[in-house]
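Do me a favour: review this protein, sequence plus structure tokens, and tell me how the chain folds. Record follows.
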Amino acid sequence: MPNVQIRGSQIQGETIDPGNINLSGSFDFRAASGIQFTTKAEADKSTFPATTAFVHTIVTGSLVDGFQGGDGISINTGTSPDTISADLATNGGLEFSSNKIAIALDGGTLSLGAGGLSVGSISNAQIANDAAIAKSKLGALAITNSDVDNSAAIAVSKLAASTISGKALGTNLDNLQDGNGIADFTYNGSSGVSIALDLNGSTLNLSADGIKISDGGVGTTQIADDAINAAKIADDAV
């Protein structure tokens, strides 16, 4: 049987039923200038081709929006895929350890263990000069003489026994003055003085060895009447 060609202009519209089309065959539409299909609306949800509007909606809705870094987040778009990392502040107290965020500890004042962060060992250098530390927090409270610096200026009011001879330490004593037979002097404890005998006349002699009657210093005026008995007079003295 010879082949019969039926051109498009010879076919009336909607004259070929779907049952007369061999859908299992191969069709070459490359030479066609345009092929249009009647599509179903997207709400149909059938196996028929959807509208291009529906396809565009589904495709654009499936695209993931680009990421941007927020607080503490850094995104490197120069890698493929993008690299998201934690943005640590300089000297912020955090660091990476074995690819994990960890607390950066400096010295031994803080300790990090399985239970968390705790106070470690505090030395004298970590305590501020104006720190108000309760007395109950101190260890050895007794201060010995060796604990006091030679240049320490301890106020008199801090001493338990702060007087001497009834006078507060640092206060001069009442003046000690000479009496009869003592050379003139005044002593109040502020400085040292020397005490000397006040000799009247030549009957006494004062030397480095002490005081004595001067040789030949006793005259008749120094001897009372009837003061010398006969036994005290040498035989040839009179």
The mean pLDDT is 79.
